[in-house]
Specification:
Radius of gyration: 25 Å
Low-confidence stretches: none
Helix content: 25-40%
Structural class: alpha+beta
Mean pLDDT: 83
Distance between the termini: 53 Å
Largest sheet: 2 strands, antiparallel
Shape: elongated
Oligomer: single chain
Number of strands: 2
């Protein structure tokens, strides 16, 4: 599989930013990636969602006797 960047010229035309070695009429699949800002925002939102699940108000409180290996550096 090759990864090649392209520039959109119009809705039906792409210009490759580097040549590729493929026979004429070879079918290719194009994957449109989100812009860098959109991708970063999506990762930040996903991270915030997971953190809220891990440290939310409904997170159960665990009794100290349930801890199998205590952390000696933990100061309560």
């Amino acid at each position: 599989m090759q990864t090649v960047e392209a520039q959109v010229i119009d809705p039906t035309l792409l210009r490759l930013l580097q040549p590729i070695q493929l026979p004429k009429l070879t079918r290719v699949v194009i994957a449109v990636l989100p812009s860098e800002g959109d991708e970063r925002a999506a990762w930040l939102q996903a991270s915030a969602d997971w953190l809220s699940q891990a440290y939310g108000d409904d997170e159960p409180e665990y009794a100290p006797e349930l801890v199998k290996k205590p952390n000696p550096e933990f100061d309560r």
